[in-house]
Amino acid sequence: MAAAKSNTNWFVIGVSAAVVVVLIALGALVVFLNNQATAPGVAPEGGNVNQETGAISFGSGEDEVDVFVDFMCPVCGQFEDAYGEQLQTAAANDDITLNIHPVSILDRYSQNTKYSTRSAGAAYCVAEKAPDAFLDFFNYMFANQPAENTAGYTDEELAGFAEQAGAGAAADCIADGTYMDFVGDQTTAQEIQGTPTVEVNGDRIENSEIQQRFAEILP
């Protein structure tokens, strides 16, 4: 008996195989893009920056004070007016370890310029490129703090402030927004809901407790 004529439609099989290949490629692309979107932001490499906690540290005292600040936050400006010099002096004298965390929770108050994130990222650029200039930059930022619901400063202006503080080397880093993702990651990881947020020896305290707790550890 003659062999039965094959009814195999090789064209349909070929098209189906091609579709499968395309779907696999698209799936791989989606996975890649999702991984890129959720990948942690690159961390600064400055010697005084903790890449895990985002703390920019000064002093080596036994008591630790962690301060989480947003450069757009008016209450943070008031906090720095009240306690900034005292904390920085205590750190300089190694009476405490001062850990400063630039974070971002007020981007919605900067006319879509993401000022909180950009300025915090700029602070990390300064901490990495010119750590000795960080506190001058930090203090300048609060002394010239923009009001809420304004655009804040441009990247070029932030780079200019950095140069005035002695951190001109941070300009490219600021322009590139190198640490903006890192700022977002740290804000989320540290569960910051409002600023300033203050911790003393690892304990997060209420703003109403700040004066008493500082009196206990500051000279």
How would you portray this structure in words?
- The structure is a single chain.
- With 219 residues, the chain is α+β, with helices and mostly antiparallel strands.
- The protein folds into two domains: 8-39; 56-217, 3-Layer(aba) Sandwich (Glutaredoxin), CATH 3.40.30.10.
- The chain is 49% helix and 11% strand.
- It is built from eight helices and five strands.
- The protein has helices at residues 10-38, 74-92, 115-129, 134-143, 155-164, 171-176, 180-189, 210-217; strands at residues 56-58, 63-69, 96-102, 197-200, 203-205.
- It has a five-stranded mixed β-sheet with strand order 1-3-2-4-5.
- Helix 3 (115-129) packs parallel to helix 5 (155-164).
- The chain is globular.
- The N and C termini lie far apart (106 Å).
- The model is unreliable at 1-6 and 27-39 (pLDDT under 50).
In short:
It contains eight helices and five strands. It is of the alpha+beta class and 219 residues long.
Shape: globular
In order across it, which strands form the biggest sheet? 1-3-2-4-5
Q: What is Rg?
A: 25 Å
Largest β-sheet summary? 5 strands, mixed
The span between the termini is 106 Å
Give the overall pLDDT as a whole number. 88
The total of helices stands at 8
| Count of distinct structural domains | 2
What string, H for helix and E for strand, traces the elements in order? HEEHEHHHHHEEH
The CATH C-level class name of the largest domain: Alpha Beta
The name of the CATH superfamily of the largest domain reads Glutaredoxin
- Share of residues in strands: 5-15%
CATH topology of the largest domain: Glutaredoxin
